[in-house]
Amino acid sequence: MEKMKKGDLAEFKKNYKSPYKGEIIISMGTCGIAAGGDAVYKLFESEMKEKGLENVKLKKTGCLGMCFCEPNLIVKLDGMPDILYGNVDERLARLIMNEHLTKKRIINFNTIFMPTDDIGRKIFKD
What we know:
Blueprint: H1 8-15, E1 22-27, H2 30-34, H3 37-51, E2 56-61, E3 73-77, E4 83-85, H4 90-103, E5 111-113
Parallel strand pairs: 1-2
Antiparallel strand pairs: 1-3, 3-4, 4-5
């Protein structure tokens, strides 16, 4: 394998096209698991497979530092802001699956963080 030269990584990143149109990141630190994060992960895993959502990547992560709202998860979809949902139980997980992932509608409750214009991202259409 040839050694990389200065600028090769930047060029690779510029040309890289991910096969995924989004990702679900579920907090699976000890507090997340204790609060039921493993059940939420398993539900997403089976529901995404059943609905044929192969273009959305399901990932586990460690603690996000948001222990007060565990289990929590981040939804990242192309063309939408990244959303952090908290206190996600199986009922809310199904709602996120059916509304946010499938219909691209953000759920307004249990939303812990949603970027706004004041942090430099215009996410709402005029």
